[in-house]
Amino acid sequence: MPGFLLEMQLPGLMPDGGWILLAKKTITGPAFIENSLPNVYAHWGDFLSAMKDTLIMELWAGSVSFLIGLILGIVLTVTRPGGILENRIIYQTLDKIVNMFRSIPFIILLTALMPLSRLIMGTAIYVRGAIVPLVFGCTPFFIRQVEAALAQTDYGLVEAALSMGCSPLDVIWRVYLKESIGHIARGTTITAISLLGLTAMAGAVGAGGLGDFAIRYGHDRNMTDITWITVLVLVIAVSIVQTFGGWVAKKNTH
Amino acid sequence: MIELIHVKKEFNENGRSETIHAVNDVSLTVEDGDIYGIIGFSGAGKSTLVRCINLLGRPSSGQVLIDGRNMMELSPKELREARKKIGMIFQHFNLMPSRTVEENVAFPLKGSGLTKEEIREKVHRLLRLVEIEEKAKDFPAQLSGGQKQRVAIARALANDPRILLCDEATSALDPQTTASILQLIKKLNKELGLTVVVITHEMAVIKSICNKVAVMEHGSLVESGDIFSVFTDPKQQITKTFIRTTSNVSKVYELVDTDSDVVRLETGEILAVLHYKQLLVSEPLISTAVRRFDISLNILFADIEIIDDKSIGDTVVIMHGDYENLTRAIEYIESNHVEVEVIKDARISA
Questions:
Q1: pLDDT tens per residue, chain B (350 residues)?
Q2: Distance of alpha carbon B85 from its chain centroid, rounded?
C-alpha cells in the first residue's frame, strides 16, 4: 500500500517560501480513501499544499488586517463627531477611504494592487503576491466590525472614565478595548471567515489555496470528490474559527 | 467651594444655523459642605450645567472656579488631576460590565502610586463605607440598581474627592432604594465633609437631603436660595409647581373642583389651607385658636415635613363658628406665621 509523506511544519513566509520543519512522518492512508476518493488520493500532495497556502494567506493577511483594522477602527471611533478626540478631517477622510475600498470587488482589487504588491512584497504573484490585496480587501471590512463593536460601548462608561481623570489613551485601552473584547472577538470571527472566502479568489494571481484547488481539479477537470472534500475542509475550518471566536466572546461577557 | 460665573453652554448642531443655549448665563456658588440641589424638568439644562463643573462639557463662555482655581485655564493633565478630586455618579451607574465590583472601585486608583495591597485595602474600606462589601467579587450585572449605585459611589470616592456630583443618581431607582441612597449621600456629606451637587427632577429628593436649591428652566437659573426659604416662599411659578408635587395637599383643589362630599360645607363653615412657614413646635396653635375663639376645627388632612430641621407644610381644615370668631381666629393664626388660604367660605355674614 502506497504511503504519503506528511510534513508537520510551521507556516512561515520566508523569502524562498520555505517552512520551518517540525516533524516528518510517513502516513499510510486507509484503503477507502484510495477507493472512494480517487482524485483526492491522487492529488494528495497538491491538496496539502493548497491547505498550506490557504493557511498562510489566512494567518498573514488576517494578522496584518487585525492590527491595522483595530487601530483604524479605534481612530474612527474616537474622531467621529462627539468622540473623545473629535476630528472632522481625519474622520471624514478615513471614512471615505474605507467606503471606497469596501466598494471595490475583490477580484478587481487583486489585479489593481499588483504594482503595490510588487513594491511591498517583491512579487505580485503566488501566495506572497496575494497578501497585499487580501489585506486591502479584508481590513476595511474589519475596520467596520471594530467600529460596530466599539459603538456598543455605552458612552456613559466613557464619560465615567473621563470624570475619574482618565486620559484619552486610558479611555481607549481601559474602556473601549477592555469593555468590548467580546464584541471584537465576534467581529474578528466574522472577518476571519470572510477572509477565508477571499483567499479562494487569490488563485487568480496564482496564489493557490483551497479555492483554487477546487476550481482547477474539482470544476475544470470534473473531479467532484475534490470539490466535496475541499468544501468539507472549509466547513471544518469555519466551524473551528466560529467556535473559538464564540468561546472568547462568551468568556468576556458578563 | 464651587463658583460658576456667567456660565454659558451653546451647542451648534452641524448644518443647522440655530444655536441651542443649553445653559444660559448661570451663576451660582456652592459652599463647602453644602448639599446643593439643582432641579428642573428634563431638557432644562441641569445635566449640561453639572458637566460644566468638571468640564466634561466645556462651557462656551464664563468661568468655573473650584476653590478659587479657574478650571478652564488648566492644561489637559492638570484638568485630569483636578477631576480626580471631583467624584461623579450617574443615573445609569456607568459601572464597567466586564469588571467585578472590586475592580470597578479600583479602576480610578490605577496610576495613583498605591501598591496592590494598599489598593485592595482601600477598595474594601470604601465598599464597607457604602455597605456592600459582601458583593466585592460580583459583576455589576448581578447587582440591583441600588447596589450598583452604591458601588458607583464607592468608585467616585476612590481618589478622596472633596466634591461629589450626582447626575440624576436616584432617578432610575424605586422610592425605597432612592431613600437609602439619599441617606448614604447625606452620611458621606456629614462624615467626610463632602460637598455634594445633586441634579434631579424630583422635589422630594431635594427636600430630603439638600440645604440649598436652584431651579432651572430653559437653561437659566430662575430661583435659588436656601431650601427653607425657597420652600416657604417660592417666587416663580415653576418652583411652586415643583413644590406642589411633593405635597398631597394639592388634592384639596381637585376635591373642591369636583364638589366632593369631603369638602362640602355647612352654613357657618369655611374650608381653608393653613400654610406653615415657620412652625414653632412648642406652641399648640390650633388648640389655642379653638379654645380662645370658641370655634370648632376639623383637620381633613395635613402634610407637614421636616426640611433642613425645620417644619414646613400645609394643613387642610374646616372651621366652624360665628363670623366674628372665625375672622379673629384666622387673624390669630396668621399672626403666628401661618398663612391661611380660604378656599371655600360659607360664613354667615354679620
A1: 999 999 999 887 665 667 888 999 999 999 999 999 999 988 889 999 999 999 999 999 999 999 999 999 999 999 999 999 999 999 999 999 999 999 999 999 998 889 999 999 999 999 999 999 999 999 999 999 999 999 999 999 999 999 999 999 999 999 999 999 999 999 999 999 999 999 999 988 998 899 999 999 999 999 999 988 888 888 888 888 888 777 777 778 888 888 888 888 888 888 998 888 765 555 688 888 889 989 998 888 888 777 766 777 788 899 998 888 888 999 998 888 888 888 888 887 65
A2: 23
Interchain contact, A157 vs B90, CB within 8 Å: no
Instruction: Please tell me the distance in Å from B58's CA to the nearest CA on chain A.
Output: 13
DSSP strand pairing (B86-89 vs B2-12): unpaired
Residues of A whose CB is below 8 A from B88: 160, 163-164
Residue pointed to by grid coordinates 471595490:
A104
What domains sit in chain B, N to C, each tagged with a CATH number? Answer: 2-235 (3.40.50.300), 248-346 (3.30.70.260)
Closest chain A CA to residue B143 = A254
Report the CATH number that the domain containing residue A173 is assigned in CATH.
1.10.3720.10
For chains A and B, count residue pairs whose Cβ atoms are closer than 8 Å. Answer: 64
B90 touches chain A (CB under 8 A): yes
* Interface probe with B: pick from A92, A155, A157, A163, most Cβ of B within 10 Å: A163
**Could you list the residue range(s) of the whole structural domain that residue A186 is in?**
3-251
- Is the CB of residue B301 less than 8 Å away from at least one CB of chain A? no
Q: How many domains does chain A have?
A: 1
> What residue type is B100 in one-letter code?
T
CB neighbourhood size of A17 (10 A): 12
* Model confidence, pTM: 0.81
B139 with A164: Cβ contact below 8 A: no
Cell (9 digits) for B141: 450585572
| Three state DSSP letters for A27-40 | EECCHHHHHHCHHH
Q: Which of A236, A200, A239, A202 is nearest to A218 (CA)?
A: A200
CA distance B194 to B252: 40
